[in-house]
User: What shape does this take?
Amino acid sequence: MGDSFESSGAVCVTGQSGANDQLLYFTSSSLLADDRRLIFISDRTGDPNLFLRDLETGRERQLTGNAEGYLKSYVYHDGQPYRGFGKASVSLHPASGRTYYVQGRQICVVDAGGNQRVLAEYPHGQMTAFTHVSADGTRLCVPTVDARALNDEEPLAIRPDYEIDERVQRENLSSYLRIYDTGTGKELCAEPVRRGWVTHVQFSPIDPSLLLYNHEWSADKGIRRMWLWDGHKHRRLRNENDGRSRADWACHEMGEREGEFIIYHGGYANKGPTFIGRMRPDGTELREIPFPPDW
Assistant: This one.
């Protein structure tokens, strides 16, 4: 992408940036509903920021003005505690063009014109992960975990020298599914997930009362990875039956666009074949298709 820019909100025509440009995480679209404009993260300013690119003209607009590096959070464990841009925090609402992100402890939103506002602030003592905005644009989920899981404010490597899930289990730490009203910024709930490290969340595309979430880097990852919360109960989605085992692994769960199924992938125990799976949100019609052994 491009290498020239002006202040936040400026429109620019660019060549090759030579910077680190990245799309948003797989739980969020990077493309606006017009199929023409694209949101991406770039460090071409020296710090990570959000940019908007018109795919037809090549014109770009810088949307945020971060100059404080990147935030310590899931994936970016080596970032700064409570300071900087949350590279793992960005989610786009394609229809409205509003992009949600975390800056320090502030939960923010910016539109395609560069107009920004602060929605809310999450508590000190918590660290964030990938966010998600509901399909109707009314709710934003910001998952957090007790900061002790990421070594509080002490420096941490990308891959820590301890198992984060094991610490969460042993020290009885919690994650929280923090859901905010995108209009008022009011925190609608802070649902605890005891002894679980939640890093991915996704509202159902057709029912914002259903929230898909995970337990990251978990032991027993064949059965403890994928969960669904309906606002009242938490339900584990993959159990030990019909040839499935806690020694399997499952990963990268997400809702299909039509909302009828959840899809995921994984691998069976003892170096068994990898597979792709699908189930309804209520856990029924679970099917897993193993790939050929050499895949």
Remarks:
- The longest strand covers residues 139-146.
